[in-house]
Amino acid sequence: MNSCQTLETVAGKVDGLVAGDLGEAEITDLAPAFQDAANKLDVGQISDPIRTDAGLHLIAVCGKRQGGANAPTHDQIENRLRGQQLALISKRYLRDLRNQATIETR
């Protein structure tokens, strides 16, 4: 097992091994052992085995979204977009000034 795409296929071929898609989950909704493993993984990686009372588990992180306390606020997003618009307007204005300028060299 080396990727999210092959995880369920490979698990289905092994007796006693079960794989399932948990869908999207908040990291805080996971058990502490799973939170630690998921926080350390990059997208597409699979954790080392995690032992619990129910048996051994592998966690695969197939995607991440920023949310919760780390998500930008409405005002931050609006300010970023306004800044981008102002930067574009200023570039256009400077371009127009350069095009209209008359440069004399003597």
Task: Give a summary of the structure in a few sentences.
The chain has 3 helices and 2 strands. The chain has 106 residues and is mostly helical.
Quaternary structure classification: single chain
Shape: elongated
Distance between the termini: 74 Å
Largest sheet: 2 strands, antiparallel
- On the 0 to 100 scale, the average pLDDT is 83
Tell me the helix content.
40-55%
Low-confidence stretches: none
Q: What is the number of helical segments per DSSP (H or I, 4+ residues)?
A: 3
Give me the count of strands: 2
Biggest sheet strand order reads: 1-2
| SSE string, helices as H and strands as E | HHEEH
Instruction: Work out the strand percent.
Output: 5-15%
Rg calculated over all Cα atoms: 25 Å
Return the structural class.
mainly alpha
Report on the architecture of this protein:
This protein has helices spanning 4-12, 32-40, 74-100, and strands spanning 50-52, 55-57. The protein has three helices and two strands, in the order H-H-E-E-H. It has a two-stranded antiparallel ribbon with strand order 1-2. The mean pLDDT is 83. It is mainly alpha-helical and 106 residues long. Strand 1 and strand 2 form a beta hairpin.
